[in-house]
């Protein structure tokens, strides 16, 4: 088969979940070595960035780099919001399947198409979605799903949500779960590297860790409430490290920390590079992820693979992914979350059990396995 990947998402400087999933799927699909691969992308304003991202794929003789040289990516993205430019204007080579990764299927694609749809947050919690993104999804997603030959999503939970909110037939939706790179996310820790990073961010004791974008859906305000309650209960508690870039509507997170007067106990790192994030994760006392809605939830899975106990929500896809390998709490209850954090501190035996269960559960998810599942989807489309 000839498979084309719309690869513009590879060039995001600060990749979040969608970008990381896309990059891992593309890389591992190429490594299967079974199909001819085309990577479609537009000319960049910074061509050196293109070289860094793309060049390592060129050693594979089955990979063809298909660059639209006469149109900038920024210009395409802006015009496409209003004009819906036909994809075949820019990429005329036909593939057996062309895969798109970011909710929207452009018109005029040659051959069959597959579209990643990760969750229905814009329907369930529209108040947690930025205005521009919400408008884009409302205007385009349902119609994109109807035109696509196959919808790819990342959990059984998300599949049922797509059926419920968009009326897409079950047989049109395939589940290809996210996974873990076990060569990176494991319980082998470089203590010297951890010491350097802790010093960089002024972390001088044990710490709870949240890792992800600061945005309403991640429920970080409730995490601050829970941590403040824990601090009131006992001032000699681990610090709380919040690592990730500012998303949208994040000001209240910082305000709550100030209002509770726990500025010295809560550390904001801002966006950190992947290598630093992994090391911080491995060194954490526990990973706390009280998100109110996730299509999959990669961060808890990665924490489990690192041998770090997790506290996460009992809603959306998270119970499906975590099962019995973590504390599942009510994300709308600061008391529930605070109690789980206290249990991590005080109950060493249960913490060890969670670590063991987490390591075992995480082994079930590999990117090679996900790439193989995706290839089976493409085969069934022929």
Automatic annotation (TrEMBL):
GO biological process: lipopolysaccharide biosynthetic process
Segments forming domain Glycosyltransferase subfamily 4-like N-terminal: 138-183
Segments forming domain Glycosyl transferase family: 199-360
Keywords from the UniProt entry: Transferase
UniProt cross-references to CDD domains, sorted A to Z: GT4_MtfB-like
Entry superkingdom: Bacteria
Alphabetized InterPro entries for the sequence: Glyco_trans_1, Glyco_trans_4-like_N
Protein name, entry field: Glycosyltransferase family 1 protein
Organism of derivation: Lacrimispora amygdalina
């Amino acid at each position: 088969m000839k498979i084309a990947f719309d690869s513009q998402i590879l060039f995001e400087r600060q990749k979040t979940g969608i970008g990381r999933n896309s990059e891992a799927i593309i890389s591992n699909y190429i490594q299967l070595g079974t199909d001819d691969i085309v990577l479609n992308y537009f000319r960049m304003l910074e061509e050196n960035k293109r070289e860094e991202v793309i060049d390592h794929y060129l050693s594979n003789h089955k990979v063809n780099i298909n660059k639209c040289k006469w149109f900038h990516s920024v210009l395409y993205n802006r015009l496409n919001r209003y004009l819906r430019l036909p994809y075949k204007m820019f990429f005329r080579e036909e593939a057996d399947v062309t895969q798109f990764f970011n909710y929207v299927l452009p018109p005029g694609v040659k051959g069959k198409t597959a579209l990643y749809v990760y969750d229905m947050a814009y329907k369930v919690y529209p108040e947690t979605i930025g205005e521009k993104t919400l408008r884009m999804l409302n205007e385009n997603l349902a119609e994109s799903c109807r035109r696509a030959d196959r919808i790819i999503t990342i959990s059984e939970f998300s599949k049922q949500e797509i059926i419920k909110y968009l009326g897409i037939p079950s047989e049109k939706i395939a589940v290809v779960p996210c996974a873990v790179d076990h060569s990176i996310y494991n319980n082998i820790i470089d203590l010297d590297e951890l010491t350097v990073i802790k010093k960089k961010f002024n972390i001088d004791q044990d710490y709870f860790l949240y890792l992800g974008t600061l945005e309403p859906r991640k429920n970080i305000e409730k995490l601050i409430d829970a941590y403040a309650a824990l601090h009131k209960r006992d001032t000699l508690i681990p610090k709380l490290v919040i690592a990730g870039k500012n998303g949208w509507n994040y000001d209240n997170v910082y305000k709550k920390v100030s209002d509770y007067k726990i500025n010295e106990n809560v550390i904001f790192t801002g966006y950190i590079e992947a290598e630093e994030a992994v090391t911080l994760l491995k060194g954490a006392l526990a990973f706390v992820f009280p998100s109110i809605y996730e299509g999959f939830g990669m961060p808890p899975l990665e924490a489990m693979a690192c041998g770090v106990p997790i506290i996460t929500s009992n809603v959306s896809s998270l119970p499906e992914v975590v099962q019995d390998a973590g504390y599942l709490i009510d994300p709308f209850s600061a008391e529930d979350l605070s109690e789980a954090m206290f249990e991590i501190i005080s109950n060493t035996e249960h913490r060890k059990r969670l670590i063991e269960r987490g390591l075992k559960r995480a082994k079930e998810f590999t990117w090679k396995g996900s790439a193989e599942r995706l290839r089976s989807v493409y085969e069934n489309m022929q």
